[in-house]
Amino acid sequence: MNKSKRRDVVYEVLCSTKSHPTAEWIYEKSREILPSISRGTVYRNLKELISNGQLTKVEGVFEMDRYDADVETHSHLVCRECGAVVDFSPYDIKSVIHIGQLDGFCVDEFSLVYHGLCVECNKLSDVNKLA
Ligand SMILES: [Zn+2]
Ligand SMILES: [Zn+2]
Fold first, then answer.
1. Which of 68, 69, 78, 105 has its Cα between 20 and 30 A from that of 131?
2. What is the CATH number of the domain that holds 124?
């Protein structure tokens, strides 16, 4: 089993979901495909994939990093109840938020996070209101 094969497994697992999973989740799924893979290998490969620009992290929202195989600039809807992370690109945000020189600061990347309740949790809170 060579190194790049293990990295492919980690990458494919992340590409197979839109749920922005934790490293632990990716590790569990990777083990279903490759039972011999270790936790350390998964974490190391995630780091390598980030430095290769193949995946990103959803920053500053959770205690545990959440990973995203979609490296295009997009924003996220984050549910404060269940922790669901949903991609959200209502418009071309790159054209709305100017990327370039802002007050002398060279911006090459940004992220937007909207906090609230997801569809499912919103339904539940409606049910609780009725009860
Ligand atoms: Zn939710
Ligand atoms: Zn995303």
1. 78
2. 3.30.1490.190
How many domains in the chain? Answer: 2
Rounded to the nearest whole angstrom, what is the distance from the C-alpha of residue 27 to the centroid of ligand 2?
19
Q: What is the pLDDT of residues 104-118, one digit of tens each?
A: 777 777 778 889 999
Ligand at minimal distance from the CA of 20 is 2
Find the ligand nearest to 119 CA.
1
Residue 63 belongs to domain spanning:
1-68
11 and 54 fall within a common domain: yes
Question: How does pLDDT run across 53-99, given as a tens digit for each residue?
Answer: 999 998 767 788 899 999 887 889 999 999 999 998 766 655 555 66
Q: Which one of the ligands is nearest to 123 CA?
A: 1
Kindly report the pTM of this predicted structure: 0.80
Residues 6+ positions from 7 with CB-CB distance below 8 Å: 45, 48, 49
Tokens at residue 51, please? 């430095």
Ligand nearest to the CA of 71: 2
In whole angstroms, what separates CA 8 from the centre of its chain? 17
Q: Is the dihedral of CA 13, 18, 19, 20 positive or negative?
A: positive
